[in-house]
């Protein structure tokens, strides 16, 4: 019987949740959720100078917005320092680690001499096999007795087998001279204690894996399945940085991208399932596997992101989309929609969500629902309201009083009205858009009329007519 899949996301709380970190979290979440396993969250806060509660809160908020729920409590690596220390002391007690009394000056002198002689500068401590009776009463670090012969093979699900000669690896420091455990030890102990079966992380950690495996094997623990995923590059193929635009997931949230679209886009950033570009969470969980991850860095493509997000907005249930819109307004510090306006937007949602790529675009399309009489008409729209156009709106109003308020009947009425005046309906559309929405770019005139209803439509046309 196969054991339960357990993955983890382990960010350092030194800033926001980076888009690359978000993708790593997503891959771990998809892999675990698709196999009925567990997805755990660990905050690697051992760097006390750079770790902040605000950064931890930002990471948790980013995870929540993305909908990446985790199992169990959030684990603080710093809180587990005693456990990490105990493992190092166990290795020391059993001879798999040793006390190294070398000073920084001595280590530097060794490296300088090695460099001058053309030898490897990898430090080899003279204390590795020293008799404890010769130990001085002085500060020391605890180093792992790493293997010096042979090679370490990282069997990676993405990179393939990666072989590193053991003479290229140093005796890793486990405990500093102040007795504090190092990050490399903490990661190994935490992954083991949390039961992590699959370590899916950025390929910048690939070299760390060889050193961490030395600790794992010294402890006699099972080696997890490794999958080191390529980093994300900007559109220019260079490492992602601020010059490429938004880096933190909260920036994407505040720009109004839907979380479902972000999940879809991030999943496709370096992973593929045939030619599928747009898919649901259920499909992603079902399809996601490590073999679909490419070896080359993925490139961030904002046009593709917008396209995917637009399709997700179109796919979303109207009521759910209204709820998401409300969440967006709240998260971005904007005023909530009054109940009456929210009801109108909800009624208009089938029209609004077509071709909107973000929530701000959707809100702009919904302007006709959100504005109040008398309308503030933008300059471009106002140009359509010539004296002739205003007279036309005034003449149209009585006919609307008795019209059947259904799309087909309204289309017949307005087209017939235009024809009687020797116009095409397109020539009427500009003044009607200006009168109904105060904008030159709006949803269909008929859609707006149906959402606004007879009374409000006529009042707005009256406002824009010759009497205005």
UniProtKB/TrEMBL annotation:
Name of a matching Pfam family: Anticodon_2
UniProt keyword Ligase, yes or no: yes
EC number: 6.1.1.17
PROSITE patterns attached to this UniProt entry: AA_TRNA_LIGASE_I
Example of a GO cellular component annotation carried by this entry: cytosol
Alphabetical UniProt keywords: Aminoacyl-tRNA synthetase, ATP-binding, Cytoplasm, Ligase, Nucleotide-binding, Protein biosynthesis
Record protein name field: Glutamate--tRNA ligase
Originating organism: Primorskyibacter flagellatus
């Amino acid at each position: 019987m196969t054991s339960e899949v357990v993955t983890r996301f382990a960010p350092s709380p030194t800033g926001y949740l980076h888009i690359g970190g978000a993708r790593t979290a997503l891959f771990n979440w998809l892999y675990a959720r698709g196999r009925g396993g567990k997805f755990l969250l660990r905050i690697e806060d051992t760097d006390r100078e750079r770790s902040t509660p605000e950064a931890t809160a930002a990471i948790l908020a980013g995870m929540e917005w993305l909908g990446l729920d985790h199992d169990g409590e959030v684990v603080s690596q710093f809180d587990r320092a005693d456990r990490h220390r105990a493992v190092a002391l166990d290795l020391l007690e059993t001879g798999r680690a040793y006390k190294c009394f070398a000073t920084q000056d001595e280590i530097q002198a060794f490296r300088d001499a090695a460099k001058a002689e053309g030898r490897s500068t990898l430090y080899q401590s003279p204390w590795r096999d020293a008799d404890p009776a010769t130990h001085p009463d002085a500060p020391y670090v605890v180093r792992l007795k790493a293997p010096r012969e042979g090679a370490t093979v990282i069997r990676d699900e993405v990179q393939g087998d990666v072989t590193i000669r053991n003479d290229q690896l140093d005796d890793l420091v486990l405990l500093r001279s102040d007795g504090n455990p190092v990050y490399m030890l903490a990661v190994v102990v935490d992954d083991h204690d949390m039961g992590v079966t699959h370590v899916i992380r950025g390929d910048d950690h690939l070299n760390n894996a060889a050193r961490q495996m030395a600790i794992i094997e010294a402890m006699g623990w099972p080696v997890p399945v490794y999958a080191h995923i390529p980093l994300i590059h900007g559109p220019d193929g260079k490492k992602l940085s601020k010059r490429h635009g938004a880096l933190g997931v909260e920036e994407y949230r505040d720009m109004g991208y839907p979380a479902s679209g972000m999940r879809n886009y991030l999943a496709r950033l370096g992973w593929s399932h045939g030619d599928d570009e747009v898919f649901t969470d259920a499909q992603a969980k079902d399809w996601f596997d490590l073999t679909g991850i490419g070896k080359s860095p993925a490139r961030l493509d904002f046009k593709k992101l917008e396209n995917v997000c637009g399709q997700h907005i179109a796919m979303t249930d109207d009521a759910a989309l209204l709820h998401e819109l409300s969440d967006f307004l709240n998260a971005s510090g904007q005023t909530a929609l009054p109940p009456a306006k929210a009801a109108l937007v909800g009624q208009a949602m089938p029209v609004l969500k077509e071709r909107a790529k973000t929530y701000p675009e959707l809100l702009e399309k919904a302007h006709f629902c959100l504005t109040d009489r008398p309308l503030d008409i933008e300059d471009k729209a106002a140009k359509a309201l010539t004296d002739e156009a205003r007279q036309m709106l005034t003449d149209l109003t009585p006919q609307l009083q008795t019209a059947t308020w259904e799309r087909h009947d309204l289309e017949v009425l307005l087209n017939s009205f235009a024809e009687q005046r020797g116009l095409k309906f397109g020539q009427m559309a500009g003044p009607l858009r200006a009168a109904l929405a105060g904008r030159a770019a709006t949803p269909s005139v008929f859609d707006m009329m149906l959402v606004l209803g007879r009374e409000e439509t006529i009042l707005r046309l009256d406002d824009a007519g010759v009497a205005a």
